[in-house]
Every structure is written in C-alpha cells, then in structure tokens.
Amino acid sequence: MDDYNFINTRHQDSDEQIGRMIKEDNRWITWSKIIPWERLSEIYKRSMFLETTFSEEEIRLMIGILIIKRQKNIPFETIVEGIGKNSSIQYFLGFEEFETDREIDNKSLLVRSLYKIESSLKEYSDNKKMVRRNIMNRKSDLFKNNKQLIFRNSGGYLFINPEDVIYLNANGNYTSFILENEQPRRVNSIMGQIELRLNPNKFIRINRSYIINLDYISEINLSKRQCKLHSKNGKEFYCPISRGKITKISRKIKELKTFIS
Predict the structure, then answer these.
(1) Which residues pair with 150 in a beta bridge?
(2) What tens digit of pLDDT does each residue of 165-221 get?
(3) Which has the least CB within 10 A, 40, 74, 156, 173?
(4) pLDDT value, residue 261
(5) Nearest to 89 by CA among 9, 16, 21, 177
C-alpha cells in the first residue's frame, strides 16, 4: 500500500488498540469518524442484491473499500491485499485492533462482490443521468409553450414574461424580478420554486441569491467573480458570482455562445 502513498503508521505492538498510535489528523481516521456508516449500510441492504448475505462488519468493510478505490483509483485486489500493511486503513475499515499482515476471509468472494456493487452503482448513475436529461428536455418543451409566469398577489394575479426578466434577486421568502422597460416586481415566492419554472437553457443561478437571463449577459469577469448584464435600453447591472458556480457558468456559456479566438 505504501506504493500508492497511503499514510503508513504501523503499530509497534499489534495488541495495542489501533487508535493509540496513529495520528488523529490522519485523513482516514477523520473520515472514519464523519462518514455515516449506519446510513450507508441501510442503503446498501435495500439496494444491493448479491448471492451472499454479508454481516454488518463485512458491509462496513466493503463500503470502506469502495470509498478507498474511489479516492485512490487502484484495483480492489490491491486494496484487499494491502489492508494488513496499514493501520490507518484498518481503522477506517472498522477493525478494532491492528494486525500486521491481516488476512481477509474469502478474498475472492469479497472482490467479486465489490466489482458487482461497483457495476450496479455505475448503472444506477448512468440511469440517473439519463432520467435527468429527459426531465430537462421535457421542461424545455414545456417552457416553449408557457410564455408567462403567474403569481398571486393582494389584488389578484401578476403576470411576468420570462423574456423580459433580466435577473432575479432573492430576499428571504420574497423574490424580485428586474425587468426590461418596467419597474422591478416583487413576489411572495422563494427563488428555488421560481427556478423550477424557468427555462434552464435561458436562466442560470450564479449564487444563492441571483438568477440571471443569459440573453442579457454582456461580460463575465472571472477574477472579480462578477457578471455584467446589459438591458436593451442601455442600463447596466452587476451581479456577484459565487466561487462554486464559475465552472457551471463557463460550461453553459460555451454551450450557448460562439467564440472567436
């Protein structure tokens, strides 16, 4: 396991409890304490159908190995063979004591089961992505036929044409629409609910409080994390971009715009 940069903190005395001689800030020790193992075990038992019934300890072991493979990108066989050489990994996998050259029972069955679980997880992920694409396509078709956003207000109903929306700004349970050629409109509706009614090909959330209309973008300053919007009547608006949204916005712009290099 040392060949793959695992932090190797072996015990001098294999009879000592594993936690006594390893650093508390070791990432495997930290992760072992914050990962919801019982919750993951429940999900595993509901969703996985294997030929063999595994104990709680074996389920914890397999979930841990799946996480290690995800982090280190090495074969299951290598991980299983190397468990006995690393105390931090043994702690992470749920063993109470460190054993030098610990042997895992039924290695071949364990590895086969791990590959089957990995395959099932990939199939689930692929299906989830396909469903998401289908939903987005259906939403786009819906928005083509739905020209107005309708909200209840104290006097009756408020109609807003999405094409006139430059951006939206959230303030608690209220959302303000900044519109082309009109005064801002404020509705008693949270922005998350409104976002579901907007065309995802035209509108994008750039932080927790702002959604912008891509048709009005005139400039994006990535270093300042700022988006400049320009209305048809010459008004300019500046909206902040959160750090976590920069990649998503850049990807969306590349999809919609033609670049001249």
Answers:
(1) 159
(2) 999 999 989 999 999 988 899 999 999 889 988 888 889 999 999 999 999 988 888
(3) 156
(4) 44
(5) 9
Cβ neighbours for 6, distance < 8 A, ≥ 6 positions apart: 72, 82, 86, 88, 89
Give the Cα separation of 9 and 89 in Å (integer). 10
Contact criterion met (CB below 8 Å) for 214 and 228: no
Task: Yes or no: say if 259 and 226 are a contact pair by the CB < 8 Å rule.
Answer: no
- The DSSP string of 50-75 is -SS---HHHHHHHHHHHHHHHHH---
- Among 220, 218, 221, smallest CA distance to 229 is for 218
* pTM for the model: 0.46
Phi, psi of 241 (to 5 degrees): -110, 130
Count the Cβ atoms, other than its own, within 10 Å of residue 162: 17
- Alpha-carbon span 251 to 102, nearest angstrom: 47
**Half-sphere exposure (Cβ direction) of 91: Cα atoms closer than 13 Å:** 26
156 pLDDT band, cuts 50/70/90, is confident
210 burial class (0-12, 13-18, 19+ CB within 10 angstroms)? buried
In whole angstroms, give the CA distance from residue 117 to residue 40.
Answer: 13
Of 62-76, 122-136, 188-202, 217-231, the range with the lowest mean pLDDT is: 122-136
- Structure confidence at residue 143 (pLDDT): 56
- pLDDT tens sequence across 208-230: 999 999 999 888 888 899 999 99
Both tokens of 201, joined, read: 């090909």
Distance CA 219, CA 91 (A): 51
